[in-house]
Amino acid sequence: MRVLLVEDDPMIGAAIVQGLEDAAHAVDWVRDGERGLLALHDNRYDLLLLDLGLSGMDGVDVLRTVRRNDAALAIMVLTARHQVDTRVDVLDLGADDYLVKPFELKELLARMRAVIRRRGGTGEPLLVCGDLSIDPASHEAEFRGARSRLSSREFALMEALLRRPGAILSKGDLEERIYGGNEGVESNTVEVLVYGLRRKLGPTAIRTVRGVGYMVDADT
């Protein structure tokens, strides 16, 4: 998934970014609330990870502003503020979850998966479309009896397609889901990943729509 992290502590931010990228998420990191709102205006994200104790615009104000304009975005608050009243206020403002620092990365990743499942209206841990499924926890994929563990970038590509079955995603769309706003993506990266996935899962796991992009059929 594509994640926006709004965190002003450089050590915490760098550790979270590294952990999320290792887990196949595309992450954009900004260090203050104003830049966070600008990033949300200019890009599409699956999840916002929001610190409260930001310099300048406070995280609570960022949350309030985001929720006035976007009811669909999943939002997790990551903060050192542990008071019950603060948790209640933040959840009532529209946060989907609240995680107190310090925390283990594996708990953050599990809570992210749970938030996205709830937002999708399902408790099912797997992403499934017909005979094709992927497990966000283990990064394993299965298609018509072929089962394989995916690399982080292969998983990110499959996750993007499976979250929108039947929709055609362009090469640029997929690059954003895999790399976020990072520069320097090689021109044939998506093609190489698709080739590798077809070798692992079978040639019909991903369909090419010539000149447009890639998709998984809704009734695969």
Automatic annotation (TrEMBL):
Pfam families: Response_reg (PF00072), Trans_reg_C (PF00486). Residues 124-218 bind DNA. PANTHER family: REGULATOR OF RPOS, TRANSCRIPTIONAL REGULATORY PROTEIN TCTD. The modification 4-aspartylphosphate is found at D51. InterPro entries: CheY-like_superfamily, OmpR/PhoB-type_DNA-bd, Sig_transdc_resp-reg_receiver, WalR-like, WH-like_DNA-bd_sf. It comes from the Bacteria. It comes from Ramlibacter aquaticus. Residues 124-218 form the OmpR/PhoB-type domain. Keywords: DNA-binding, Phosphoprotein, Transcription, Transcription regulation. Residues 2-116 form the Response regulatory domain. This is Response regulator transcription factor. The keyword DNA-binding applies. PROSITE patterns: OMPR_PHOB, RESPONSE_REGULATORY.
